[in-house]
Amino acid sequence: MTIIDFQEARRVALAVLESAGVPPAQATLQVDLLLEAELRGRASHGLLRLKRIVERIRNRVVDPLTKGSHRWRGNVLEVDGCMGLGPVVAVAALERISERAVAAGVAVAAIKNNNHLGMLAWYADRIARQGQILIALCNSEALVHPWNGRRAMQGTNPFAIGIPLVGEPFVLDMATSLVSMGEIHHFANLNRPIPSGWALDASGEPTTDAHAAKRGAIAPFGGAKGYSLGLGFEVLIGALSACALGPGVHGTLDSDKACNKGDVFIVIDPGADQGRYGAIESYLDAVRASGSPDAAVQVPGDRALAYRRERLTHGLPVDDQVWHDLQRQLLAASCQRD
Amino acid sequence: MTIIDFQEARRVALAVLESAGVPPAQATLQVDLLLEAELRGRASHGLLRLKRIVERIRNRVVDPLTKGSHRWRGNVLEVDGCMGLGPVVAVAALERISERAVAAGVAVAAIKNNNHLGMLAWYADRIARQGQILIALCNSEALVHPWNGRRAMQGTNPFAIGIPLVGEPFVLDMATSLVSMGEIHHFANLNRPIPSGWALDASGEPTTDAHAAKRGAIAPFGGAKGYSLGLGFEVLIGALSACALGPGVHGTLDSDKACNKGDVFIVIDPGADQGRYGAIESYLDAVRASGSPDAAVQVPGDRALAYRRERLTHGLPVDDQVWHDLQRQLLAASCQRD
User: Fold this and answer.
1) Do B283 and A149 touch (CB under 8 A)?
2) What chain A residue is nearest to B235 in terms of C-alpha separation?
């Protein structure tokens, strides 16, 4: 790990994307999203992703210029992402439904053919700070096996909620898998076994071999209920966006296939009566106080905000290889220009 | 258990409610909801509940006549349930937002001061059969402890999704607790220990004593993630409906307190392009086929529909005491009339 100053990381990441042909406004959205993941302690959704994004631009499965095409059906915005950068298409859609929800009370965006959205907490926080409620869902490449199933049939299907409060917004952002494929890779890189119950191998048998698990399937979180939840999200996203489903999904883990998963945003305007926010904050404080001295109760977002404060001041711990790759990419790009 | 013919059960349940002053239209909604739970194998949400509903009407914390009061804010319907019967207030709200969503694409109902909604699958199935998508959430009396928490701070907070398909709708209906308090009571009645990890006692210590668990707290499903999900739902419902939260919620488990939890419905019109439904059904069949011969994969709703078919033909297995109580209530009511 190297500790990198936040502004230095931002400068390098922006330069890498701009050298790949991404205009400054679009590059800023993409980089701010990745850096917010680094700040919140989610390196799996951070600078690590930049290399693949650049490869995908080179392979023409990311169009860095488009914001997608929009069609309203009532207050449901049907979005074709046209292979744009995930956050560029998503933010353009969010801006429209957020504006619409001010008068309409609620609006929905159903997005297909968009690239990876990255960490959903970034979107939830953004909308909540504007004073609106966001519910966000995505499906993704099939990595998770159904309860009793022997192969991967559903994505890690993350889900987020953002809710404005008096102070920091309430932000929940969770995948419906027990662990991420990134965590399995981490164990494989260290040649360590994974805990039992995390994954199946390629033939559908339970395994503790991280290398075998990489070719197999991750367990859903929470057994039968978590499986049902992840599947319900997959079907909901499919019904609204007409995206690909399960093993038909590509383009979230590779560098050369068009991305055909779906994303759904629901923005709800909470109205003028914001007295309730104080009651919610008191409730969350009571939840925090419901533990014991040796095991604190955390509310979703608490740990992320603690990381954030610490890293803004003291810098981001970035994997040596990731940082080295970014520097090299930048150098190669500047040589090509000379 | 006594096996009761479906129509006989319906006749007795309707008569019990009507003898308590519930008009036929309202009684029909309430009874159809309870019987649908019996049909789907969810006796905990079935005829068992009728006794408390009648007690709550007698104690004037259920007003069997009202459908609640409505106020539109854009396409968000703010509903004060005015202590009405859960399904009566809920169906009135659903009818309005469902009609609104035809043109608007999406509409939301945020309900407070309504009685217990019962099994959410009934609402999800109803809206999906009309060709619309439903997302439903409720909070409830605090029975579930936070991850690392030592006392009950959130409800069992059920969540449902209903999605129209070509054949039977997709219906997911799940609580965010590991088990229901009904299951704990079942173990207590049999004087059997509960599995470890299910519950804490009143002092916050893990227990396998079902009697101690009744005075303690149930675990969330899926550890930290399930806790976060249930808490996120509680906060979302609170932000939209201004209902009571956590230990402040009453009236879902007692017979004499006004019910102050909240309910949220989101109805989304899927538009005319229903070609996607066939693709979803093929996907769900592939999910069902992803298991092994000795352990089948079930899609949410599969088991409920199997129960339903069997029970419509062969009758409902109803607890002897529950059935005896209903008969006695009916007899007492008819004697009072004479």
Assistant:
1) no
2) A280
The whole-angstrom separation of Cα B301 and Cα B219 is 24
**CATH number of the domain within which B54 lies:** 3.30.1370.60
pLDDT of residue A13: 97
Which H or E element spans position A2?
strand A2-4
In a domain, B22, yes or no: yes
Contact A104 B108 (CB under 8 A): no
**Residues of chain B with pLDDT > 90: what percent?**
91
Tokens standing for residue A170: 């309430």
Does some domain include residue B73? Answer: yes
Which tokens in the block code for residue A189? 């890189």
pLDDT(B330) > 60: yes
Q: What confidence category does residue B274 fall into, taking pLDDT thresholds of 50, 70 and 90?
A: low
Those residues whose C-beta lies under 8 Å from the C-beta of residue B256, and which sit 6 or more positions away, are: B55, B56, B59, B61
pLDDT, tens digit, 9 for 90 and up, residues B70-81: 999 999 999 999
Q: Give the range of the structural domain holding residue A332, as residue numbers without chain letter.
A: 2-177+220-274+304-337
* Local confidence band at A338 (pLDDT 50, 70, 90 cut-offs): low
Chain B interface disruption, residue of A168, A200, A201, A297, most B CBs within 10 A: A297
In this complex, the residue of B105, B279, B283 whose CB is nearest that of residue A76 is B105
CB pairs A-B closer than 8 Å: 222
How many distinct structural domains can be found in chain A?
A: 1
**CA nearest A33: which of A135, A126, A156?**
A126
Judging contacts by C-beta atoms under 8 Å, the chain B residues touching residue A231 are: 172, 287, 299-300
Q: Which residues of A touch B271 (CB under 8 A)?
A: 73, 76, 78
Chain B residues with CB under 8 Å of A284 CB are 235
Q: Note whether residue A38 is domain-resident.
A: yes
Residue A259 pLDDT exceeds 60? yes
- The alpha carbon of residue B308 and the mean position of all alpha carbons in its chain are separated, in whole angstroms, by 17
A284 vs B78: CB contact, 8 Å cut-off? no
Q: How much is the pLDDT for A141?
A: 96
Residue in A with minimal Cα distance to B131 = A239
Q: How far apart are the first and last CA of chain B?
A: 32
For residue A274, is pLDDT > 60? yes
